């Protein structure tokens, strides 16, 4: 699943390309979107803005409707010049929003719907999102409260729960836990407020650092390399993610990998830097 910074960059790129421009063409493979366009043509409207809310992309139109898309595992938005060949086959196309200057194509997007702008705050999925780590109005105290409501759950699972705080995916989950020296398999109830606060603050720091570096080019999103170590060498930009069997950058212990949870998501960690901590709060055996 895309990380919050990926979605933020995608929304920013779409906004740069489309905002303020009249829509000259709209296509969709979603029948409900097509019916809405037939009833109230988007080609009579302009794109007002494109923004991210957690892992949702919200494209606002001047007629008062908002196109909500969620990428899940495989969806993506691409930006092309008119007439430019697409990098993916047309059979993967789900949505096209075109202006005179750019063509935005949503490929393999599984979730898309129009929402009246006046109903946005009451939308079921958006309303349940936790504090957005990339929002200027991020509330760390609320994120901490939501974490502590789940004392029996493993912290690795809680970090991925978008109803606790929105934005962290598999890469940042592993990187944040390593940075705070916390085992992914620790129950939330075994962690102190300081440890939970470290995870929240580090998650926000990493995400912000990776969206406020260089502006992504107007191509496909996600084509940049994340950096959590602060190192310039392209092979040294992550602490643990994708490094199973390689030596820890801090202690040289081999990095471990485990699939866990209902979705069998991958978790990378250093067993020495991140010792297990059982529910009683005392470190486990080495």
Short note summarizing the structure:
This protein is α+β, with helices and mostly antiparallel strands and 286 residues long.
What does this structure look like?
This protein is α+β, with helices and mostly antiparallel strands and 286 residues long. It is built from seven helices and ten strands. Strands 1-6-7-5 form a four-stranded antiparallel sheet. A four-stranded antiparallel sheet has the order 2-3-4-8, covered by helices on one side. The chain has a two-stranded antiparallel sheet with strand order 9-10. The protein starts with a helix and ends in a 17-residue tail after the last strand. Mean pLDDT is 90; it is low at 214-222.
Secondary structure blueprint with pairings:
Blueprint: H1 4-18, E1 25-28, H2 31-39, E2 47-53, E3 56-61, E4 65-70, E5 76-80, E6 93-98, E7 103-107, E8 111-116, H3 124-127, H4 140-148, H5 155-160, H6 170-179, H7 193-211, E9 256-260, E10 265-269
Antiparallel strand pairs: 1-6, 2-3, 3-4, 4-8, 5-7, 6-7, 9-10
Helix pairs in contact: 1-7, 4-7, 6-7
List the main descriptive attributes of the protein structure presented here.
single chain, 286 residues, alpha+beta, four-stranded antiparallel β-sheet, 10 strands, 25% helix, elongated
């Amino acid at each position: 699943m895309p990380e919050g910074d990926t979605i933020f960059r995608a929304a920013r790129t779409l906004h740069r390309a489309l905002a303020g421009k009249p829509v000259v063409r709209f296509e969709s493979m979603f029948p409900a979107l097509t019916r809405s366009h037939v009833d109230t043509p988007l080609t009579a409207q302009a794109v007002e803005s494109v923004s991210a809310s957690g892992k949702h992309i919200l494209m606002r139109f001047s007629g008062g409707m908002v196109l909500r898309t969620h990428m899940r595992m495989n969806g993506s938005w691409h930006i092309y010049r008119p007439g430019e060949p697409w990098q993916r086959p047309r059979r993967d196309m789900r949505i096209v929003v075109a202006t005179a200057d750019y063509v935005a194509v949503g490929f393999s997007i599984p979730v898309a719907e129009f929402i009246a702008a006046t109903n946005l705050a009451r939308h079921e999925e958006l309303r349940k999102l936790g504090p957005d780590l990339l929002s200027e109005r991020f509330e760390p105290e609320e994120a901490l409260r939501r974490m502590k409501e789940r004392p029996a759950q493993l912290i690795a699972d809680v970090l991925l729960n978008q109803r606790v705080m929105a934005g962290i995916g598999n890469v940042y989950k592993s990187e944040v836990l390593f940075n705070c020296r916390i085992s992914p398999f620790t129950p939330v109830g075994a962690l102190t407020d300081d440890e939970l606060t470290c995870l929240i603050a580090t998650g926000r720091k990493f995400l912000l650092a990776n969206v406020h570096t260089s502006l992504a080019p107007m191509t496909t999103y996600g084509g940049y390399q994340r950096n959590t170590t602060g190192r310039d060498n392209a092979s040294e930009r992550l602490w643990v993610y994708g490094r199973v069997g390689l030596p820890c950058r801090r202690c040289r212990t081999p990095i471990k990998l485990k699939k866990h949870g209902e979705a069998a998501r991958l978790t990378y960690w250093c067993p020495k830097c991140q010792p297990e901590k059982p529910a009683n709060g005392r470190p486990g055996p080495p």
